[in-house]
Design a protein that fits this description.
The protein is mostly helical. A two-stranded antiparallel sheet has the order 1-2. The protein contains 4 helices and 2 strands. The radius of gyration is 12 Å and the shape is globular. The termini are far apart.
Length: about 80
């Protein structure tokens, strides 16, 4: 695994915090960008890093749903449907 940059981890942490604040609802990309004050590129980079961190640390995965946007997976059934 390649070493992550501190900026990528900082962006992932901002996104994780923003998603926890609105849980169990989610956020579409535009709202997530605004809440974290990140560019589109930084937000996508942060989401990719957050997905890696979730897998490494055993946290619930971040998924994107059509109606909810990005959110933490609440159940195995939801993850299977995704």
């Amino acid at each position: 695994m390649a070493k992550r940059s501190p900026a990528a981890e900082r962006h992932a942490d901002l996104i994780r915090t923003a998603l926890f604040e609105v849980a169990p609802a989610g956020m579409v990309l535009g709202r997530l960008m605004g809440a974290c004050e990140l560019s589109r590129w930084q937000t996508r980079w942060g989401l990719a890093t957050l997905r890696d961190l979730c897998a490494e640390r055993g946290w619930p995965p971040v998924i994107r749903g059509r109606d909810l946007g990005y959110h933490f997976c609440a159940s195995e059934a939801e993850l299977e449907e995704w």
